[in-house]
Amino acid sequence: GAGWKEIRTVISSIFTSASMKKMHLMFHDQLDNLIEVLQAKARRNGGIMDIYGEYQAMTMDMIARCALGQNISCIKERDNDYYARARYFVANIQFQQSLVVKLSIFFPYVRYLRPFTKFGIAESYLVGILSKSIRGREKEREAGKIRPLPDAIDLLLAENEKRKRSGDNPLHHDVIVSNAWALFLAGYETTSTSLAYASYLLAKHPEIQDTLYEEVTSTFEDDETIDYERVMRLPYLHAVFSETLRLLPPVTTFTSRKCIKETLIGGRIRVPVGAHIVAPVHAVMWDENNYDRPKEFIPERFLGDNNKAVWSATYLPFGIGPRNCVGARFAEMEFKSVLTAVIRRFVLELDPEH
After folding, report:
1. Prediction pTM value
2. Where does the chain bind heme (predicted)?
């Protein structure tokens, strides 16, 4: 509807190439911190560690810096309260949602208890900090204080101010908060999961890891800064990114649509108004009719002419169409920057005892 289009237009404005380049500048210190922590843990533990936990802390730092304008340093301080509550919230979100929905069918009052659960308290705490941060940023901008490196909140507020000047309806504070919250969740959990999947796949396929290493080290010197323009143009890195998300998509339930007009498909399948249609993401991307040897990790399928042959309707990690994941470009930038930093310094191997 019109409301969605207005919000989408504003949100999309923060994911242009120019905006991404500005946000990428905030990654540099975070990447250095990650490598420093990984090197220290590798020396202490004989090179063995749970890299997923490191990726979670890293992506938390990145999204907090880029979306909230906050330096919380989870990668170095794991007892950080914000990090602990965010991990608890994300780890329990699907369970809480499914449980509350099911119970509320028979006991309607249950839905009102959610804010008082540990899960609800964590959510309120996190969203409260985000809302307060946005209020504070609004006052800064009203006072003429403009940050040299704008984060997602700055970009959202700047776009909203532009709407006010042009006579368009500005977005309500709650709408800005909810979209910043969605960006936070998407940039934190899904990207850390994808990075963990990629690390596992590269460790399992050392020949692919070697090819990626050659590309990365031929592009960036050992201590050279990983810049936005070059890291986003690396073809084999892009192939690894694309194939990881095809084989092991971190999110498979959001690719759904609600029917707003009764529709007849193929002359025999009636879809009533209000019905929700969910795309079977795994089934589509693991279908032999869409991909050759679909259960195998083959980044080359996304290189050159092979990539051109991939039909967009069969590649669904970010959804499809005008309502696809608006933060896909940010997630890609985050994934590629972190993986490049890691591959440049480390050889990934599976723990022989697991």
Report:
1. 0.83
2. 325
